[in-house]
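The records we work with from here on pair a chain with its fold. Taken together, the tokens spell out the fold as the letters spell out the chain. The record below shows the convention in full.
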Amino acid sequence: MNFLQLCQRLRQEVGGSGDGPPSVLSQIGENNLYVTWINQAWTEIQNMRTDWNFQWTPLSITLTAGQSSATLPTDFNILIGDGLQLDTHSVSAISWGDMRDIRQGTLNTTRPSALAVAPDGTLYFNAIADQNYTLTGHYFTTPVSLANNTDTPALPSHFHMLIVYKAMMFYGAYENAPEVAQSARLSFEQMLADVMRSELPEVEMPGTIA
């Protein structure tokens, strides 16, 4: 479902009047509340974790020769430390504290072997690049809001009702309808368990120690 369809499904589930909202833009009254609650529900679901599979995306940025830092994508949230490469060479993700200590000294001009994300979101390396490099890997994106009728949540479509159930909980609290809120919470928790099984990274079990 897209943003508009989610709002219309919310209105349907709570037994709202009419067949709207006709759009997510410039709404008032009940229709505006449906739009607000759907967007709030989607934002809160995204914020429940920083490692949802549906927020996983490839990383590819250039480290320019003579530079020791680079700008991350605007939707960057969390860097995935495994599998980072400068061209065909592995590069390690280290803590910002360790990188800060390294950068207090004089940096060599060579191929960097380590990187870290500073609190301001800048990506720093442990050396000045001796040539242009392409950093590849993966990261998790920041939560995004829905804005237009056809905007579609990144959550797999068969889980879109999770957003509606969450929004129904807001409706129940606003309208003092505890039966709606309770039913929605039960459905939300049941589907959330399925979403977490599907949309969180697999837990790797430690190997056997001989």
Observations:
- Residues 3-51+144-199 form one domain.
- The helical segments are 3-13, 29-47, 96-103, 161-174, 178-199.
